[in-house]
Write a structure and sequence with these properties.
GO terms for molecular function: oxidoreductase activity. The chain is an all-alpha fold. It has 19 helices and no strands. The longest helix is centred in the last third of the chain and has 24 residues.
Length: about 425
């Protein structure tokens, strides 16, 4: 593998988080993906080796910058990063080598980068409006908790109820920044947010690796494989969730969303060897994530319940409390519909008939989508409405929750 992989801290065979791709229940999933891909997605022995190594690999460039933080006066490292992001690395006098190496990578424009696809991927993300938030929160994020080991970094923050809202705000800020048309250009907010989140992950990784409670059999915290899985959550899993609601996308639109997140993954330090290049690659990678996912555990339930309960918090007055309970039930119903009852039970979600609401409304959405496709100017109008909705709601959430959107780890919460 490239320099993205570090010297392994232990034998990959000692990992206890790797599921068996040949375990009962995967045959039907394998057959489905084989039909969709027109090839067998089952990981080979060589690919399993890469998967295990990726689970034991951090982000050397970002990790070196975080190590640099510790050699400088408090806050100095972050100021250097901010200046390099705002004014360029050349604006720094004699910058540290770790910072030079990081910016050499992020300032390098990949030969495969297609700005037209970036633009289209952003437009698709805007067009779906608040449905995108529903899918990201109640399918992508919620489903990510099913892998007990992968979710451990969140558990180690403690105060799960408080941190659930913090993560929603941070994820919303990050998603809005990187999906804004033009936002990934050098110096724009999407580009800067991707790098800041990358460094926040490296800081969390450093803190957890120093913790006596971290078990390396879980793999590296926020490792390469889990980071690639997060890119899938925002791309093909995101698209799958929207299609389950009745949204329609052309092949070029789907490829555009995947391309957008390929570049975000590049900026966030995901090794290009495991970073999917197109929709087919992404679906193959998704199967391999599902095939090797570890067991759920008690932390899966704790995180699932905390995320679901976020809808009930900060509700003042009878009307607001009623609306909170309704939102909680509808969101839980969507998770149960899209993830399945077995997964929802592991996440501690209530059994509710609202899971039938979502497939029932899908035909209506399909009809609206067909009308959109046939109506000139409809895409532009929906983009405007989507931008207005999410840019109007987000500042209110930040103010209401007094949330921090600077992507800075809260050290005092780590146990």
């Amino acid at each position: 593998m490239t320099a993205m992989l570090q010297k392994l801290p232990l034998d990959p065979a000692s990992l206890n988080r790797v599921g068996d791709p040949a375990r009962p229940g995967m045959n039907k999933v394998r057959a489905l993906f084989k039909w969709m891909l027109d090839s067998d997605p089952q990981p080979t022995e060589g690919q399993m080796k890469v998967i295990r190594e990726s689970m034991l690999s951090g982000d050397p460039l970002a990790d070196a910058v975080v190590a640099m933080y510790g050699q400088l006066p408090a806050g100095k490292g972050r100021k250097l990063v901010d200046q390099a992001l705002e004014q360029g690395i050349d604006s720094l006098h004699n910058p540290p080598q770790a910072l030079l190496a990081l910016f050499r990578q992020i300032d390098h424009e990949p030969i495969w980068l297609d700005r037209e696809l970036l633009r289209l991927g952003c437009e698709v993300s805007y067009r779906v409006g608040m449905s995108g938030e529903l899918v990201l929160r109640n399918m992508s994020l919620m489903g990510g908790y099913l892998a007990g080991a992968a979710a451990k970094p969140l558990v180690f923050t403690g105060q799960l109820d408080r941190m659930a809202n913090r993560r929603l705000i941070e994820t919303g800020k990050f998603w809005m920044d990187v999906t804004t048309p033009g936002g990934l250009e050098r110096g724009e907010e999407g580009f800067k947010s991707a790098v800041r989140v990358r460094l926040m992950h490296a800081q969390v990784r450093s803190m957890l690796l120093k913790s006596d409670s971290w078990d390396m059999r879980w793999g590296y915290p926020l490792n390469q494989w889990d980071s690639m899985g997060t890119i899938l959550e925002f791309s093909v899993i995101f698209l799958t969730g929207l299609r389950s609601l009745g949204y329609l996308f052309s092949r070029r639109e789907r490829e555009a969303v995947v391309h957008l997140w390929r570049y975000v993954g590049y900026l966030m330090g995901v090794d290009e060897r495991i970073l999917p290049a197109n929709e087919k690659d992404s679906m193959r990678a998704l199967y391999q994530v599902m095939a090797t996912i570890g067991e759920s555990d008690d932390d899966t339930r704790r995180l699932g319940e905390a995320l679901a309960n976020a809808s009930l918090q900060n509700r003042d007055g009878g009307v607001q409390q009623y609306l909170g309970r309704l939102e909680y039930t509808l969101r839980a119903g969507y998770s149960r519909y899209i993830l399945g009852d077995e997964a929802a039970d592991k996440l501690g979600l209530p059994r509710t008939l609202t899971k039938y609401f979502w497939p029932a409304q899908a035909p209506v959405r399909v009809g609206l989508e067909l009308a959109r496709i046939a109506t000139p100017g409809a895409n532009k109008a929906l983009m405007w409405l989507g931008e207005k909705a999410r840019k109007g709601q987000f500042p209110r959430q930040v103010k209401k929750l007094k949330a921090d959107t600077t992507f800075t780890p809260v050290k005092k919460l780590f146990r």
